[in-house]
Amino acid sequence: MPAEGTADYEILEDPSRLREAHAVIFHIPTAPDLRRVRKYPGQKWVAWSFESDINYPMLRFAPYMAQFDLTMTYRLDSDVPLVHFGPETRDSLRDPPREKTAEAPAVYFASNAYDRSGRLQYVEELMRFLPIDSFGKSLKNRELPDDPGRETKLATIGRYRFNIAFENSLTQDYVTEKFFDPLLAGCVPVYRGAPNIAEFAPGENCFIDAAAFDGPRELAEYLHWLTGNPAEYAKYLEWKRQPSLQPGFLEKLALTSPDCLERLCIKLRAMGCGRPGGRSLWRRWFP
Predict the structure, then answer these.
(1) Residues 164 and 268 both lie in one domain
(2) Per-residue DSSP letter, 69
(3) Among 33, 185, 223, 257, fewest CB within 10 Å belongs to which?
(4) pLDDT above 70 covers what percent of the chain?
């Protein structure tokens, strides 16, 4: 059965039927030149993107965004906000930490070539003061014997005390799986990214904010100190045993159900988008 919000919408992906559509979703990172796309009377245009406005500056270019009627992005102030996790995250966060069997205190996974945050230079310098095992394409110094996917990454991260979780860009609300993966794996994320990261934290004192330190050397000294003081390190994992998760995280979790497309359909209905007797939402991820 169709979800409540999408029951009276037909989902199309055929460009030849653009004229029929009551709403058109444009994937901003791959969208065409909008000057060459006709907007038909009564149509609603939707800007969609999980990517940051640092990597795709058009997301913060007012004249460009003015072409859209609705936004569906990672920004919490968008019409249909998106988050980089799903409802299943809530229960998995309670999984107990794995035993810390890795020799190095910290692990790093990064392969994305985008780096508008300066993370490559930061991690390179951090490695001068702290042993870090790097399994991604970036700064790689370790190999995974078997890598079927995400589960291998989580299992690997869980063997370390810390995961160097740096975003590829630093901007408000842009919080990806970089932050949540170590929390799921029972590791402490050392995070550098969104300035409002505390709003996304599922528990109190569950991460280390690299922005609070005066550079890589000072951060490394603190991580060394925690490594040598197990009782202090354990305080960063106590949140897993607390009776409830943080209100800010639960608010973000509420954005995952119904899913983004259903929430968009509900929003369109409230705007009076469509007509009795057959409505359509044309969805096209432009190549």
Answers:
(1) no
(2) S
(3) 33
(4) 92
Whether residues 128 and 74 share a domain: the answer is no
- Are 28 and 56 spatial neighbours (Cβ–Cβ below 8 Å)? yes
Backbone dihedral angles phi then psi of residue 86, each to the nearest 5 degrees: -120, 180
What is the span of the domain harbouring residue 227? 92-251
CA 239 to CA 187: how far, in whole Å? 12
Query: DSSP state, 6?
Result: T
Do 101 and 160 lie in one domain? The reply is: yes
Give domain status of residue 156, yes or no. Answer: yes
Q: Write the pLDDT tens digit of every residue in 49-63.
A: 999 999 999 999 999
Say if residue 139 is in the same domain as residue 45: no
Please identify which residue in the block is written with the tokens 């985008």: 114
Overall pTM surpassing 0.85 (yes/no): yes
3-state secondary structure 87-125: CHHHHHCCCCCCCCCCCCCEEECCCCCCCCCCHHHHHHH
Residue 196 has pLDDT above 60, yes or no: yes
Look at residue 86 and tell me whether its pLDDT is greater than 90: no
Neighbour count for residue 280 (Cβ, 10 Å): 18
Q: Which amino acid is at 282?
A: W
DSSP state of 5: T
Contacts of 90 (CB under 8 A, 6+ apart): 245, 253
The DSSP letter of residue 209 is E
* Residue in the block written with tokens 């995280």: 249
Whether residues 206 and 141 share a domain: the answer is: yes
Distance CA 47, CA 79 (A): 10
Alpha carbon distance 274, 60 (integer Å)? 29
User: Residue 286: pLDDT above 60?
Assistant: no
